[in-house]
Amino acid sequence: MALLPFGEFLPDLPVFANPGATEAKNVIPRLVSYGPLPDLSVLGSALTARAQGAISARSSAAVVNNFAGDATKLYKYNSGTTTWDDVSRTSGGAYATAAEDFVDFTVFGDDILSVNNFDSPQVYTMGTSTNFAALGGSPPVARCIATVRDFVFLGGIATAQNRVKWSGINNDIQWTVSAATQSDQQDLPEGGIVMRVVGGEYGVILQERAIRRFTYIGPPPIFQNDPISNMVGIPASRAVARYQNMIFALSTDGFIRIDNGSEISQIGDQKVDRYFLERLDQTTRHRITTAIDPINKLFVISWPNDSSGATQMLFHHWPSGRWSRGEVTVEMIWDAVTDLGYTLDSLDTVSSSIDALPYSLDSIFWSGPGRIVLAAFNTAHKFCAFSGSNLAATLETTEARINDGGQALVTSFTPVVDDVSVLSGQLGTRDLSNAAVSWGSVVAQQADGRIPVRGNAAYHRARVLVDAGGTWDHAIGVSDIQTGEFGSR
Known about the structure:
mainly beta
C-alpha cells in the first residue's frame, strides 16, 4: 500500500468505514495535510480577573491599539512595557459585567466603543483619551455592539432584549430617533433575544431563534430587515466570528457559515457537531469564544468542557472544510493585531534579554504593523499568542483492509511527516467491524524511518505521535506498510 492518509477529522461518523480520522489532536488542518499547533506564549502581564472581551484596532494615525475587559475594568495594552494599563472610567465606579455576560467592543473611526449588558456604553478615542467615559447622547444599555456602514448598532437593549437601535449617520453620539439624523430602532417580533450584531457593509442580527440581515436603503425606513432564517439562531453570544464576507457561528443547528449575509451552509454536519455538543457543558456555554486565524485560514472555537473551566478547541480550515482539535486551556481566544514593527535595537524597549522576549525573533509579531494573529488569555489572565513551541500531536490514519481475503500481518510503517523531531507510533487492529480497536504498544521511529510493529488482523490503522517541540510543517499519513506471512481465516 503506497499511502494510508491521515484523513479528514470526522469523529461524528462511525469508526467502521470512516473515510477520515477519529483523531487529529493538537494540529491544524490544511488542504491535504495537518500542520503543528504551537503552544501559548505569554506576551504581557495579567488582567486582574478573567478576560471577558478584547479587540484590536488601528487608529487613523496607523497606531495599533489592543483593548480588553474583565468584570470590573477596561484595559489598553502597552506594548512598550507589555502591561495592561487600566483605562476604566474615572467616574461612575467599577464596571459590573456579569459572569455570564461579555464585554463587547466595536471601532467607529478613532472611537473604541464598549458595552457589557449592565453599564452605559463607553467610549475611548484613540490618540486622545486616557480613560473610557460614558458615550454621549444617552444611548441605552445593551448586550452587543457593532459598526454597520456609517452607523453604530446596539443589540439586546436592556429594556427590550429583542430590540436593535442605531445611531445617527456618521455620529456615534446621536441616539434620539430622528428622520434627519437617521437614528432609529426596531423591535424584532420573532426570534427572541438579540444575541449578537455583526457589522460591515450590512448588519447581521443573530437572535436566539432567527438570523436577519439589515441593509441600508436610506430614509425611510433607513434599514431594510430581511430574514435569513426564521428557524436557526445562536445559543451563545460569543460563538460568532466574521472574516470578510463570511460569518462563522455555532448555531442551534450546529456549526454554520453565512456568506454575503444571505447564504447559510452547514460546516459541521456529520463531521464535528455531535462531537462538540457531547463535550459542551451547557452551564458554561457563555464561556464559548471564537476567533479567526487569517494566516492559516482558520475559524477557531474554544469552549469549557466541564464546570471547572477546562477548555477544548476546534479548528476549521474554510478553504478545504476540514477540522481538527486542540487541548489548550484558555479563558478566551481572539484575533489580535500585531504592533508596529521592531528592529533588533528597538527590542530593548521590550526586554534587555533576547531569551526573555515573549516571541521568538522570527515571530510575525515583530514584523508589524497590522498583522492579525490568533491570540488568547490564559487562565492566569495573561495575554498570549499561539507562538510557542509546537505541542505534542496525535494523528490517526483511516482504517484499511490490506488483505481483502482475510487477515494481514503488518510489521512496520513509515510516517510521512516532514519532521526533524522525535516520532513514535502504534498499530490499531481488529478482526470484526463491530469490535473495538486494539492498540499495540507505542514504538519509537527507527533510524531508517520505519516504526516496527506487529499486528495480525483483518483491519489496520496507524497512529503517529509527534513529540512536543518538534519542527515540522506537514503530516500526510503513513507509507511503506510492510507485511509478513499471514494466514487467512
